[in-house]
Amino acid sequence: MANRIQINKEFVDIMPQDYLDLVDNGTYETPNRGWKDFGTATELIAEHSLCAGCPESIAFRHIMASIPNPEDTVMVGSTGCTSLVFPMIAVHNIHSLFGNQNAIATGLKRALALRFPDRVKDVIVLAGDGATVDIGLDMTLQSWFRKERFTTICFDNELYANTGGQESGLMQKGFLAKMAPLGKRFEKVRLPEIARESGCDYVAIMTASKPSLVEKVIKQAVLIAREVGPTYIQIYTPCILEIGKQSMEGLQEMRTSEAPGERFKFREFISPEAQSFLDGLAEKKKAEKIATTT
Amino acid sequence: MATQTDSRVPQIGQRNKKGQLITDPQELFLKSTRTPSFLTGSEVIREAVRRSSVDFSVAYPITPQSEASSLVGELYAEGYVADYMRGESEFAVMGQCAGAAFGGARVFTTTAGPGTLRAFENFPMWAGSRLPIQVVFTVRGINSPLTIQPDTLEIAFMLETGMLLWHAESAQDLFDFMIKGYYVAEQPEVHLPIGVICDGFFVTHTKDMVMMTPEDQTLPHYDPYRSPVVCMDMEVPPVRMMRDPFVMKSNYISYMTHASWQLEIRAAIERSRKHTIPLLDGLIEVENGDAEIMFVASGTAVSQAREAIRLFRDKGERVGLVKIKTLRPFPTEEIRRATEHAKHIFVPEFNVAGWLAREIKSTIDRNHRVVAGPHVAGGMTMPPEIIVEEIEKHMAHRRNKELVHG
User: Fold this and answer.
1) Whose CA is closest to A108, among B105, B245, B82?
2) B87–A95 CB contact, under 8 Å
3) Is B349 within 8 Å of B356 (Cβ atoms)?
4) What's the CATH fold of domain B284-405?
5) pTM (2 decimals)?
6) Which one in A67, A140, A252, B173 has a CA-CA gap of 20 to 30 Å to B361?
7) What is this model's ipTM?
């Protein structure tokens, strides 16, 4: 059970039940935490104010179940649909402005590294595609050029959802949207390729349809960011409202879009340094397994 | 945990890794032995940072602060500043500063003119997030047409950001305001960003004699847990905590929380007075307070007014001065009292808008006494002779009007 995440005894009687549950049944300081904890432990995300069936909420749940070190993780968000979820997240998180999330994370990670030289403090950015690719692109890229040690997650719904469905850089060419009255005229920005060329040591593009895959990718991305260099994950979280789908159709939309040849077919890039780090982890795990079975 | 009570962080009476003695702030400000040094304003900025136990600084080139922010880089190379980087734009720089402050670091940066405006969205966010970052504005003109010369127009934009704003007249003010600024801004009941303002070139690029505190004494480290808001480091529960929470929690209560929080920020600015008044010897300074003609000014316009007063004295005329040290909090009552007996109040300014005159007009009674000027802009100088000439012209005009209408 968690040691560091505790409630001052004086406050126990005034804290809401859901918070007490979080402390008693949350998955802080459980090294093997993951999506399999769903249903048996209190999740680090409670409720949300997104639309019913929104794939962002699915992605959020999978991510919050997967981050390796929530008791020492600080998240940075940005303005948009994601910012409606952050108040329900049970790790410290920062909202400041629209698009500056990678600048905030840069300063935050450096401050935490200075203040806690002997401990791991993970920083994870989670923002929409407008924040990551349009208004915040320079800060996204510059943090990668500088090899800042944190993970950037982009919830790619291919438009500005929170403001009502306007064209974004990650929108597909030809899509008819607000502010693209004749259809979008240029291709979906290829940020995963740009991320690779900009210095990211790990890049993945995917949907949130498979929790086990989200877990694997998130863990890799956070651990690589901790030890090697910046990492980037782009997850398709379709805005069912703006693409004319029903609440129950989000999962199928993600599955369709990750089929072979489709734009969200799972791809990942691992730099040689990151690969040797992952190999080292795998060897260590193997050795531990042998040690426990013999 | 790295706090002021952490054994790794040197405490008052101990030495840091550069051998500087961590010194009680009041003792450092008011009792330490001061020695004269002949320095440029940019060098003064470096020396104040050296004595302020700064954790993190972000730099970006823009005239006339480029030299100062490079010199802070040298402090980093020497080990006086724990971390330092060049940002990619002022908007990003102020975000990087915010991130580090959210994470519990003492942060310093500088900017000027177009950089201030490029960064602008960050400043109300800093105040709203209660981040006690210090930024030195070495103010200059704002485009267009392009000018890199001294001009104080950008201060007008800063006035309602929720930041503390102190305006230095001289290099000496700059040094004192910087080291004292951290102390005031970081008080738990204040805990706001502070803009220490100096006039570009006039202060940054001229040499002046400054009485410095000892190089081997420095401020105690920032304690992020002496704060009215939670440090974003996952060390302090509750863990379900975001900074900027209310608006995100519900649109139905956001107007109320926004309004009350903004009022609280303004109240915090006012609460800074009790810490500031003893350290700066008041929010204003008055000279010849009984004169019928008074100047009210801030920054280097004060120095020009002082010279004009001297010229008037040579002519046998007594003219007075109110020097404003802090623009936020604005010394409304102090100015009212200091100008009570004045018949004519002149506000010399280095900007086209005359914003300081407007501030004064809106806060004192019988404000027909206030004359918005003389003022110059875009880097023009304001020689005392011109000030005298303009005032004499104006007084003659007033006398004529009185003759015609009287």
Assistant:
1) B105
2) no
3) yes
4) Rossmann fold (3.40.50)
5) 0.96
6) B173
7) 0.95
